[in-house]
Description:
Blueprint (H helix, E strand, L loop, with lengths): L16 H16 L5 H16 L5 H22 L3
Amino acid sequence: WQWWPSLDSGLDSFPSGHTSATLAVVTVLSRALPRYRWVPFVLAAWVGASRVWRGSHFPGDVVAGVGLGCVVGPVFYWPVGWG
């Protein structure tokens, strides 16, 4: 049992960093390329699912990563204002 924060490898799974970064990029790309917005979302779904299939994360870690990415992406998109 780990009762305090640690820098040891394997104890850093919440939220999924791969999923949150992917969704942040996908939210920006979907606004910049509205005609092909489904392509990045399919790739992001594959990234999230691969984290669970590989055993790197629990499904809740991936869901939290999706939520974080969907918040962070628009925050960085808004000042740029493409489109």
